[in-house]
Amino acid sequence: MKKFIKTITAILCVAVLSIPCFAAACTPSDEKPEHVDYASQLKLDLSSNTKKQEVTLRKHVDGDTTHFDPVQNSKLLGCNNAADFSSASAPETTKGYAKARYMGINTPESTGRIEPYGDAASKFTKSKVESAKSIIIESNDDKWNIDSTGERYVLWVWYIPEDGTEYRNLNIEILQSGYAWGSSVYDADNLYRDASIGALEQAQAEKLIIFSGEKDPGFHYGDAIPVDLKELRLNTEEYANKKIAVKGLVVADFNNTVYIEEVYTDDDGNDYRLGISVFYAYTVGYVLDVLSVGNYVSVVGVVKYSDYNGCYQITDIHTYDFFGSNDNCEIVEERNLEKAFTSVDIDKYKNNPDLNFEVTKTRENEAGEQEEYLDTVTIKYRDSLMATSLSLDNLYVYDSYTTKTEGASKGAMTLYCRAADGTEVQIRTEVLKEDGVTVTADRYVDKTISVKGVLEQYNDSRNGWIYQVKVHRPDYITVK
Q1: How high is the pLDDT of residue 324?
Q2: pTM surpassing 0.90?
């Protein structure tokens, strides 16, 4: 009997010891599926019946929109459709070039109202098209298709990276990198349906970027409305008396007010800037360091109309409250003022023509869904310059006024100037000091000067609204 018990015990021990080995052998592998580069696997067929055109970058817009110029007389097989972009059926506002809305993807917004990861998606796309050695756009079928805005072509974008030799499909690359949701990915008429589905589902499985479940470190998550500076300037009344979060470069600091601006590029490749003033009086603490000239900042405050300068400005600046609020002004990065204080066209300054700015808006369609559409906002040239940095050359100073009343403004100057064509320009300075000594008007009167400053206006009781260039540093006025 004892021998039998020992035998049974031995068998049970072997069985127990074997269980972990069996369990380990049956446990599914923890290895992740190999990442597939769908953008590289997909090959461009130049001989297919889709429309194709070799292009160059005209203007980067955001993560899923780019403007391209066609390469005339392209040597690439099948790329002979440049004339289509100038045909009678082409959108009137884009004659001769293509506003490309990327087929099959939808990235978070980075213009107008800002969404999490919108800036990141925009930078990703920009880095690819700006550095590409060659770019080809392709239609989804045998014709150039226009999107719901009536202005943009729905396209596949192919590019050769600066360190590559073969074309990659950028739409698919944006998808597989996690910067976009799918749009019409599963539709039967999607030219690259299988690759689109694979790229999207892989990004979801790998939890990349917008599918990560993590907060975007570059996005403002407070109760303020994240908004682009262009959207804010061109639709200011929509944000009146609302708390907003907006980014811009601090270019000047003048009498409890800083001026932030952003540089944009128009459809002709020309840079322009839009700005807004930020009134920070009664604000204390770290925010004063945040709003230092040269910082690219995120400003959180309320948009209010100023009776003094006849414009909207940002005020009620939010400071850190030690209670975990996300609604704080902060430095995004430090930049230089290389693109600030560009020269102003004095003829336009004098004649003040209308300027048209294109903006993307959203509206509800008949199905109750939100859709994008393009709109045009018209403002005067000088109004577009309000609160932005500029420079003016060859101004003759024929008169001046110096504030003599006691107070912080004692010694501040107004310089009355005239350009060569007779255009009147008024300069207003802070109290300018060099080595502790106040600079006086006799340095400038009866002399020709160049000026760097920001444009504002004020309501003169006798003459109405007066434009003036505000200067806050002595080295920003140069005597010629």
Answers
A1: 46
A2: no
